[in-house]
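4.2 Preliminary Data

To establish feasibility before requesting continued support, the project team ran the inverse folding procedure on a target of 429 residues. The structure was first converted into the token representation described in Section 3, and no sequence information of any kind was made available to the design step. The complete token record follows.
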């Protein structure tokens, strides 16, 4: 009897060891055994090529038969979209795996493969459901989420202390006051290059995100709601854009109207700005800059609505329908967005991950204390789910109108009235 019990115990242990071993050695599905090369269009902001290459190296260890070529894509997402659309219209097979901005699933759906049958279900279930929903267009999962972006305020803790402020600004008025005082003080000490506040004012998608934040913080509403209401032509909206225009050449450099993310980051990194609006990706490099004695991040300031607003950003991975190696391309997309890779990638880029379980990971928490799985719910999405393949047209009208206000080319009330008419015409077509 005791012998039998012992035998059963041994058998049980053997079975459980086998199960554990089988899980540990679970073979990654590379999709193909053939030797192939695929083209991946990488991080458009271009600031973390090493994180991209590290991902590729890890993948190629799992799937040595697949060579992934990293193609640097344009830093401007507006230019990047134009590039993709031109290639897709020509049904070019040059693009296998691409970066998909959170706003593009509806815009690019026709050109991307449905990954719902290719990616393992547990892989899809590991991601934040709101992001999977964002990437599902007419029942097709056209991208897999990789990382989340959201607008945040970077501020210099050393300078706040030096000028007697004990907390970051809670309102735009406070930001203006602090930025002015710090800028005046630093210039008086001889730093002529110092500016109070840097952000993204170029005529491109990044301005849509900055302007949306001003708009929502001032009016409490999106400029185009999920019901299709166009809310750009109101007194509160005029006030929001006029305030931003008043920063140009006062607390912000005149050149801010041509700044993208990397331009703002360069000024901030050289120690020449008290405040910066940017995405989480700049957090890790800010910590490495010798010219920044101290910094922290805070929510963007509130406007007349009483609350601040932060635009939702982030990057997802899609596979081109015109790829000649769709299995290998899909395998790379799945690996790149796997929990394992997201952990490395998120830490390397200080960008909150798309996989829910990683928010409990101490390494993630330590490297980006601002990350929370609620980001998607508390941020404001651009109207891409409503506008779908019209989104780029909407955004272009919007950022061009806002840009004309920032440069003084057009009065805010005129620019916004015209914008309202243009948006109405777009949806009447
Ligand atoms: C960041 C965001 C992206 C946004 C872009 C605008 O890359 O993640 O969503 O469209 O900035 O420049």
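Position-by-position output of the design step:
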């Amino acid at each position: 009897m005791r012998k039998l019990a012992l035998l059963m115990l041994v058998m049980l242990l053997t079975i459980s060891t086998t199960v554990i071993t089988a899980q540990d050695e679970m073979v990654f599905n590379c999709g193909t055994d053939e030797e192939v090369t695929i083209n991946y269009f990488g991080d458009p902001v271009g600031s973390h090529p090493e994180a991209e290459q590290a991902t590729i190296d890890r993948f190629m260890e799992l799937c040595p038969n697949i060579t992934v070529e990293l193609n640097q894509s344009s830093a401007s997402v507006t230019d990047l979209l134009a590039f993709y659309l031109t290639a897709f219209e020509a049904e070019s097979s040059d693009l296998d795996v691409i970066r998909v901005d959170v706003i593009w699933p509806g815009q690019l759906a026709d050109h991307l493969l449905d990954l719902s049958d290719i990616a393992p279900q547990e892989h899809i279930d590991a991601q934040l459901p709101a992001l999977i929903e964002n990437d599902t267009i007419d029942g097709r999962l056209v991208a897999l989420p990789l990382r989340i972006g959201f607008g945040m305020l970077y501020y210099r803790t050393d300078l706040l202390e030096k000028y007697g402020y004990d907390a970051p600004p809670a309102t735009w008025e406070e930001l203006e006051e602090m930025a002015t005082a710090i800028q005046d003080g630093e210039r008086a000490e001889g730093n002529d290059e110092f500016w109070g506040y840097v952000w993204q004012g170029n005529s491109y998608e990044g301005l849509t995100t900055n302007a949306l934040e001003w708009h929502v913080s001032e009016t409490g509403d999106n400029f185009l709601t999920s019901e299709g209401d166009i809310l750009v032509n109101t007194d509160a909206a005029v006030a929001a854009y006029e305030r931003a225009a008043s920063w140009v050449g006062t607390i912000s450099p005149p050149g801010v109207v041509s700044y993208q993310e990397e331009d703002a980051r360069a000024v901030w990194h050289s120690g020449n700005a008290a405040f910066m609006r940017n995405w989480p990706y700049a957090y890790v490099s800010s910590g490495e800059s010798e010219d920044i004695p101290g910094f922290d991040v805070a929510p963007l300031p509130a406007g007349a609505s009483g609350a601040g607003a932060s635009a939702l950003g982030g990057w997802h991975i899609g596979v081109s329908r015109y790829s000649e190696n769709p299995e290998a391309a899909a395998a790379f997309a799945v690996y790149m967005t796997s929990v394992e890779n997201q952990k490395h990638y998120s830490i390397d880029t200080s960008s909150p991950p798309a996989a829910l379980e990683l928010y409990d990971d101490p390494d993630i928490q330590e490297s980006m204390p601002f990350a929370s799985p609620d980001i998607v719910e508390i941020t404001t999405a651009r109207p891409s789910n409503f506008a779908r393949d019209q989104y780029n047209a909407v955004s272009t009208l919007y950022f061009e109108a806002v840009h004309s206000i920032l440069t003084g080319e057009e009065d805010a009330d005129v620019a916004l009235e015209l914008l309202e008419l243009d948006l109405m015409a777009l949806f009447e077509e």
